[in-house]
Amino acid sequence: MPETSPSSPAVAAGAPSAATATVPDGFVPLLVTDVVRETPEAVSVVFEIPPESRQQFRYNAGQYLTLSVCIDGAEHRRCYSMSSTPATGENLRVTIKRDRDGVVSNWINDAVAPGDRLHAAPPQGRFVLDESDREFVAFAGGSGITPVYSLLRSVLGHTTRSARLFYANRAESSVIFADALGNLSDRHANRFELRHHLDETHGVATPEGIESFLAGAGECEFYICGPAPFMETVEAALLNAGVPAARVHVERFASAVPELTAEEAAAVVTEEVTIELDRQKVTLPYRAGYTLMQMARSADMRPPSSCETGTCGTCIAQVTEGAAQLLNNDVLDDDEIAEGYVVTCQALPTTRTVRVVYE
To answer: Counting CB atoms within 10 angstroms of each CB, which of 92, 199, 200, 237 has the fewest?
Structure first.
C-alpha cells in the first residue's frame, strides 16, 4: 500500500513536494542530511536511512540507488552510484554530475537541500569487487569516478591489494574528489598509483596512453566507468593487450544503441503473450509496440520495476517460449541472453507467441 512521505522543511520551486508526493511501491523516503558541492557541475547528496530500512539499504561498494522524484507533476526515475563506502560506517551518499539535458541531474544540482526527502529503492548493481587478491586497476571518465571511488576506498581500506586509477576529465575544474584522491595517494603511496588525464592538456585518452598506464601490470582485475567513447577506447585497449574479458568489469551510464528501433520491432506480427508472475498465469492478445512489462501491466499485474531504462535489472524475467528483442540492455551478459533472460521494460516480442516467466 503506498504511503505519504513526511513533510519536508523546505521545498524548492519545481521540487517534489514530500507532503503530497506518494511513495512509489518499493521505494523509501530518505532524509537528505547534507549536500556537498564537489565541483561547479557536481554535488554529493548524503542520506540518513530510517532504522527500519537499514537492512534493506545495506550495499556493496560499486552499487547504485534508483531515485524517484516528481518534477512539475511528472515522476522521473534515475540510477545514481553510491560514492560512499559501506565498511566505513559513513552515511549513504550519491554523487551526481549535471547533464546538459538532464532534467533530474540539473534539478538535484540546483534544488535539493538538507531537510528534503527523496524516494529511493534499495541498492542494486553488479559492478562490485571480485573476491580475488589481484591488483585493482580502474579507468574512470568524468562522473564515472563515482562507483570507482567507492570501490577504490574499499580496496585500500579493507584489503591488502594494490591499486591503480587512470582518471580522465576535460579540465582540472571538473575533477571530482580531487583532494580526497590526492590524500589516498599520499596515504597509500606504496600500493596506489594515481594518474590524472586532462583532455584540455593532452587531448582525449588514446589506446597508447591506456597501454602505457598498464606497463608493468601483472595479474589484475579491471574496472571501467565513464562516457561511452572513453569506455570503448579503454575496453578495446585492454582486450587488444590480451586481458581476458572475464577480468574486465564495465558499468555503463549511457544507453546502448538498440539493434532494432521500436517501430521495427513493433512491425513483427505477434499475436499472443503469456505472462507468469506471482503464481498467476495470464494469456492475452498482444498490443502492438508494447514491451513485455507494459503487457503485464495491461493485465493488471504488478511486475517488479525501477529505472525502466534497461540499466538496473529489477525487471529481469525469462522468455521460455518465443523470443523478444531488447531495445537497451546494460545488465545481462551474452550467456544470460542466450538462456532467454530479458529486461522486460526494454523487451519487445519478435515471434508470433511469447511466454515470459518472472522468478
So the answer is: 200
SS3 250: strand
Is the sign of the CA dihedral 242, 228, 76, 315 positive or negative?
negative
Same domain flag for 90 and 179: no
Distance CA 103, CA 36 (A): 20
List the CATH number of the domain containing 214: 3.40.50.80
How many residues are recorded in the chain? 359
Angle formed by the axes of helices 178-187 and 145-158, nearest 10°: 20
- Between strands 324-326 and 347-349, the pairing is antiparallel
Q: How far apart are CA 298 and CA 287, in angstroms?
A: 9
Handedness of CA 76, 77, 83, 89 (dihedral sign): positive
Report how far residue 309's alpha carbon sits from residue 314's, in angstroms, rounded to the nearest whole number. 11
Which of 68, 101, 124 delimits the end of a domain?
124
Domain encompassing residue 345: 262-357
Residue with cell 565541483: 39
Domain count, the chain: 3
* Cα distance between residue 359 and residue 341, in whole Å: 11
How does pLDDT run along the chain (359 residues), one tens digit per residue?
222 222 222 333 344 433 335 787 789 999 999 999 999 999 999 999 999 999 999 999 999 998 989 898 888 888 899 999 998 889 999 999 998 778 899 999 999 999 999 999 899 888 999 989 999 999 999 999 999 999 999 999 999 999 999 999 999 999 999 999 999 999 999 999 999 999 999 999 999 999 999 887 778 999 999 988 899 899 999 998 989 988 999 886 533 333 444 444 444 478 999 999 999 999 999 987 788 999 999 999 999 988 777 878 889 999 999 999 888 887 888 778 888 999 999 898 988 899 999 98
State how far the Cα of 42 lies from the Cα of 52, in Å rounded to an integer.
30
The strands making up 74-81's β-sheet, listed across from edge to edge, are 74-81, 64-71, 117-124, 28-39, 42-48, 93-97
DSSP-based three-state secondary structure for 189: coil
C-alpha–C-alpha distance, residues 350 and 346, integer Å: 13
